[in-house]
Specification:
Blueprint lengths: L3 H8 L8 H20 L4 H19 L4 H28 L4 H26 L13 H34 L9 H10 L5 H19 L2 H9 L6 H11 L3 H6 L3 H12 L5 H28 L4 E4 L12 H11 L6 H17 L9 H18 L11 H25 L5 E5 L5 H8 L7 E4 H4 L6 H11 L6 E5 L2 H10 L3 E5 L4 E3 L1
Parallel strand pairs: 1-2, 1-4, 2-3, 4-5
Antiparallel strand pairs: 5-6
């Protein structure tokens, strides 16, 4: 059985997003109640409902001006917060999560503070404005309404959004409640009209998500550019920038507001509380918002890359036909260049038409097969003596070593190229994923688009269009790098991409 400390750790959302006061005070007390109520079979939703009544009771107590009623208000609001902590901890520990629970959890805090704002209005309505003999009257209502609807609501919703974003990048989707308008709206539209309760919830929740998204345009661009799955390096950079902002998300949710409320009510100056919402808390909100948007702007790629593989990353910009012919020359294979070219083309067409290369073939196996088929073709057609196949193993070993060296250099370059996501688009035999893993390209590309898999071959621009769609960027923001003018550069330019022709004859932007 897990210890209390272990259960407490499991009930936390994360160390990054838990406030000191919650870790050392609210959460431990909440867990004690959670274990007690869970042993009694009480559902988390019941605890949330209890917190609503406690919050309303706290508001009622705060409308009195004497110290004792206000102390009762402090106690009731603290109990309401314990219950709010308890229901979340119970849900995380027991898995008892329901739609009703989501509705109540979001509704409870709003009810508490609505009751508190009403209490402040009632309390101050007939009292004079400090320094004057004029009663607060309608002015305190307007001040409370402005603080509550305009400032408190937007501050707490964005703070919650940033916290869920941080949890998403820290723990993944399962550790976060990060949602978006499009998905929630789709759920709403798919619900039968008879499911009124669910439809009302998802309608309002979708609009709540949309309000968060409209205020965070830089984050939306950042999230969209990385297709919601940024590489590990970008996640780490984002978390480093987001972690210092978590203290502001905590300050803008409950504890700092509650302490401010307690102090101002006990000192009989509750009008200070809405003013703090409008000034100090809003200043924190603006700072948090600007820093988060700046972080996302800095991490949003303004450029994307599409790389070719064969002849580009594995041979440093030399077409494979030339690479293999050079090996024939070095090993003094007794054939002419024209005879070799005929054998090379014949074998490439044969491999394209017949599934001789299996998805689990390594590059060494692929290279071995290609060289063997070329030599067999030359011998069978009388273009080379029968002893020619003796060169087979030596050429494979030499070429494989060359590719190991070239790919190691390519990986080092790709790792330094951090200003945008990268996609691989290649004419290959169906085993490209195996080959990439063989040479250590894992994690280098957002997506791998292989002709044998997608059914489109270069120079058809359609295969590059798939790369553009994978990047999610306008073509003019994408750079295509390849060794073939016909297969890479021209179709890329046709779609509006920039292109770098990477070969020994020409290494320049087109």
């Amino acid at each position: 059985m897990a210890t209390f400390k272990e259960l407490l750790q499991l009930s936390f959302k994360s160390e990054d997003t838990e406030e000191w006061l919650d870790v050392h005070f609210t959460r431990p007390i909440g867990l004690v109640f959670a274990l007690l109520w869970n042993s009694l079979g009480i559902h988390p939703n019941v605890i949330t409902i209890l917190s609503i009544f406690l919050g309303i009771g706290a508001g009622w107590m705060f409308h009195f001006s004497d110290v004792w009623h206000n102390l009762w208000g402090v106690l009731l609001l603290m109990l309401a917060n314990f219950c709010d902590s308890t229901d979340g901890q119970m849900a995380r520990l027991t898995g008892k999560k329901t739609l009703v629970g989501r509705v109540l959890d979001g509704f409870s805090g709003d009810v508490w503070f609505a009751a508190i704002y009403i209490a402040i209005v009632v309390r101050l309505w007939h009292q004079p404005i400090p320094g004057t003999e004029m009663p607060w009257g309608i002015s305190i209502f307007l001040l409370a309404a402005l603080a509550g609807f305009r400032f408190h609501a937007s501050q707490s919703s964005l703070a919650d959004y940033y916290r869920q974003i941080h949890l998403y990048f820290l723990l993944g989707k399962t550790g976060s409640e990060l949602d978006n308008y499009r998905q929630q709206r789709a759920i709403y539209e798919q619900l039968p009209k008879g499911h009124l309760f669910a439809r009302v919830f998802y309608f309002n929740y979708a609009n709540y998500c949309r309000s968060q998204e409209r205020r965070t345009p830089e984050f939306q661009r950042f999230f969209a550019r990385w297709h919601q799955q940024p590489p590990k390096q970008i996640c780490e950079q984002f978390l480093r920038g987001s972690r210092p902002l978590m203290k502001y998300t905590n300050l803008l949710t409950f504890n700092a507001r509650a302490i401010t409320l307690y102090v101002t009510c006990l000192l009989d100056c509750p009008w200070v509380y809405p003013l703090m919402e409008i000034t100090l808390f809003q200043a924190m909100y603006v700072y948090m918002h600007r820093k988060h948007e700046a972080l996302c702007r800095a991490l949003t790629p303004h450029k994307g890359y599409i790389f070719d593989y064969g002849g580009t990353l594995d041979t440093a910009g030399v077409h494979w036909r030339q690479v293999i012919w050079d090996a024939y020359v070095r090993h003094q294979v007794p054939v002419t260049e024209q005879q070799f070219r005929e054998a090379y083309v014949f074998v490439e067409r044969q491999l394209g038409a017949q599934p001789l290369i299996q998805p689990d073939f390594t590059f060494r196996q692929t290279l071995d097969l290609k060289i063997r088929l070329q030599l067999e073709h030359l011998i069978q057609n009388g273009l080379a003596p029968s002893a020619t196949d003796k060169y087979h193993a030596a050429m494979v070993d030499e070429l494989y070593a060359m590719v190991q060296q070239a790919t190691a250099h390519s990986i080092a370059v790709l790792q330094q190229l951090t200003d945008g996501p990268k996609v691989l688009v290649s004419n290959f035999y169906g085993n490209l994923t195996t080959v990439l893993h063989e040479f250590g390209f894992d994690g280098c590309f957002l997506q791998v688009i292989e002709s044998a898999v997608v059914g489109i071959r270069k120079p058809n621009p359609g295969i590059f269009q798939l790369g553009i769609e994978a990047l999610g960027m306008p073509p003019e923001e994408i750079v295509v790098v390849g060794d073939s003018l016909e297969n890479d550069i021209l179709p890329a330019r046709e779609l509006g991409c920039r292109a770098v022709w990477f070969n020994k004859l020409s290494n320049k932007e087109i």
